[in-house]
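Researcher: I'm comparing several assemblies side by side, and this is the next one on my list. It has 305 residues spread over two chains. Same procedure as the others: predict the full complex and return the structure.
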Amino acid sequence: MTKSQIDRLGERLKEGNLNEENLRLLDEYRRSFSHAYERVINIIRQNLNLEPTGRPTKSTQSIVQKLRRESIRLTQMQDVAGCRITVENVRAQEEAIRELATLFEKVSVSDRRRTPSHGYRAVHVVVRIDDIAVEVQVRTSLQHLWAELSEKLADVSVPEIKYGGGSVLERDYLARFSRVIAEVEIGEPEQDYPTIKRVLSDELRTMISYLSKLGSERKAKQNDLPH
Amino acid sequence: MIFLIDYDRTKGEIVTLRRFDESSKHEAADVRLELELSLHRQGIDREVVLLEAENEQAIRKTHRRYFENLEELAKTEL
């Protein structure tokens, strides 16, 4: 497929034209990343004492949502193929990033720890093999927990929560949780660690019970609708 | 090992999980596409994704959202 054919496909997907032909073309495009993806995974496995979890191809849902959310073309998407590494703490994260930069020739680093994306903190290293981008996400365990919570909330509550949408309660909780994690990781927390843990856990439980209540109300409303 | 996950985002639950060994990468990709097309023909919107890891324990750690609900995630020791 040529670059313009791929970008035209991206436009059709963005418009919601997910017919069989387009799904097959997208599959063909995604498979063109397999060579670069395999090399990245193998190099990491052989040279770093870390076990990446690979995601050979981004899901169709995620690609379409990203095309709609961001003003990028399909050929500009850098995380069609990728993998994820989780490490214990910031020191191990820094070490992993340094090692990745020495292992690969063409590397660009997006550090979202100092400038989080709607609370999301992590480091994304984009590696290029034969001009094909493969994204390596490097997260600490706390950054990872935040990301998993945010993703899960987006699934079961409001999809936009990951990008600044959702209810005030959810948004505030995620923003506060992200800030506290940053303080803990930088080593300048305003409160002691047991207090932070207790406050965050209490807030999380409050939010979950709020979401359960909201879910029950929605179901009740649906049941009340005339059939 | 390769894992094919069919995930219902709105319910936050895995519908099916299939496992393939490393030598069956092409087969896994083919099955992924066929599953996606089949769901599309039925008008069902679900996330279909392939993940690759040393074992299932690894993907349960790096992709917890597929396997755990909010309450379970909330119980994580900080």
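Model: For your comparison table: The longest helix of chain A spans residues 193-224.
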